[in-house]
Design brief:
- This protein folds into 2 domains: 285 residues, 3-Layer(aba) Sandwich (Aminopeptidase); 77 residues, Sandwich (Immunoglobulin-like).
- It is 27% helix and 30% strand.
- It contains 8 helices and 18 strands.
- The strands form 4 sheets. Strands 1-9-8-10-7-4-6-3-2 form a 9-stranded mixed β-sheet, sandwiched between helices.
- A hairpin with a 6-residue loop joins β12 and β13.
- The chain is elongated, with a radius of gyration of 23 Å.
- Bound molecules: zinc ion.
Length: 385
């Protein structure tokens, strides 16, 4: 919990970004299931008061592991440490990206609580991350995603600090963005139609501009994929802090109407606006899909006499094509990105045995190669490094 006492900075979203509505992300977010999110919240609440040294905090860790195991995740790592003399654990679940496997989009939230069951602080962030993990399980993303559930946030951010000190820094981890979700339940009975998107305004200043950019992108995604409005404010007092102090690029979400019950025995589901949490889930999934560049596995039609050979994949600037049956024939070649926008279109009047295609100017990512010749159609999904 934290109190945003003075709104020093409160920029209303008025930034034109290059982001546009992505129908695939919209379809993904439409699959968010409110019952699933609410069920996660009820289970979280039933686990009890998750303070250091309690069985409840260990049970919650085990519950999280079983959730990811049941979803089919296999890269599940425990990060053990001591906080205030008690042994406790961060949970790190990794989904490997197809184009940038060693660059990470981190989505995180803490699961420890203070005085109460912490259903808002931070059952809400926990439930949202779980739902995002459920929906992205079988979706390709260009960047790797780490779903991280930190312990010991309520005792001076010790969980995230431990992870930064013992994993991020020594491994020189390549992090694209840290997206923290903490206490986003709103106040039941109030009009909860706005979410605060948090940007780094603290030293060092080297990462602040990038954080501002990513936070604008977060806000745009929230507005594209949920019915919520956004406000930009400053980041403080949650698990992104150790990352931003280290120079990493962060962003975060925090409720606009602040619950009066955080860190009390009354932080329970009855005081949360469940519709608000559901909308934040959709917006968060849209943002995570955007940050990690989720893309649709293309349904490539079978071609019976397909002698198309393309290499190397992934490519690094040039593709070599060979289609034995079409050597010497004209072909039309199209390369489109995953949303169907054409990036390259050319007619080759006489196909070589090994036809070199220059694609140096395309940005890294997933594309569809489409060739048409002699009433034959050839499709191939390609990746550029
Ligand atoms: Zn919290």
């Amino acid at each position: 919990m934290k109190r945003r006492l003075i709104l020093l900075f409160c920029f209303f979203q008025a930034v034109a970004t290059a982001q546009t509505f992505n129908p695939f992300y919209s379809a993904l977010t439409a699959n968010c299931n409110q019952d699933s999110v609410t069920q996660n919240l009820m289970e979280f609440e039933a686990l009890g008061i998750k303070e250091l040294g309690t069985s409840a905090i260990d049970d919650t860790y085990d519950w999280l592991v079983s959730k990811y195991t049941n979803l089919g995740y296999t890269d599940i790592v425990v990060d053990d440490f001591f906080a205030n003399g008690w042994p406790t654990k961060n949970l790190i679940v990794t989904k490997t990206g197809t184009v940038y496997p060693d660059t990470y989009v981190i989505i995180d939230g803490h699961y420890d609580t203070k005085n109460g069951t912490g259903t808002n602080d931070n059952g809400t962030g926990t439930a949202i991350i779980l739902e995002a993990a459920r929906l992205l399980k079988n979706i390709n993303t260009e960047y790797s995603i780490k779903f991280i559930h930190f312990s010991a946030e309520e005792t001076s951010l010790q969980g995230s600090q431990h992870y930064v000190n013992t994993d991020v820094v020594p491994n020189n981890m390549d992090i694209k963005i840290v997206f923290n979700i903490d206490q986003v339940g709103g106040v039941n009975g109030m009009t909860n139609n706005t979410i605060i998107c948090e940007q780094d305004m603290s030293p060092p200043s080297s990462n602040d501009a990038q954080s501002a950019l990513m936070t604008n992108e977060l806000a745009t995604c929230i507005e594209l994929y949920s019915n919520l409005m956004t406000e930009i404010s400053y980041a403080y007092g949650s698990d992104y802090v150790p990352f931003m102090n280290q120079g990493e690029i962060i962003t975060g979400l925090y409720e606009k109407n602040q619950t009066p019950y955080a860190h009390t025995t009354q932080d329970s589901i009855e005081y949360i606006d469940l519709d608000y949490v559901y909308e934040i889930t959709k917006g968060s999934l849209g943002a995570l899909s955007h940050f990690a560049i989720a893309y649709e596995e293309l349904a490539i039609p079978e071609n019976k006499s397909n002698d198309l050979n393309v290499f190397p994949i992934p490519s690094d600037g040039y593709l070599t094509l060979s289609i034995e049956s079409l050597v010497g024939q004209p072909i039309d070649l199209t390369i489109s990105n995953i949303s169907g926008a054409i990036s390259h279109k050319t007619r080759i009047s006489s196909l070589n045995v090994e036809q070199i295609v220059d694609i140096m100017y395309l940005r890294p990512g997933a594309y569809l190669l489409y060739i048409e010749a002699q009433n034959q159609r050839y499709y191939k999904q390609i990746f550029l490094k």
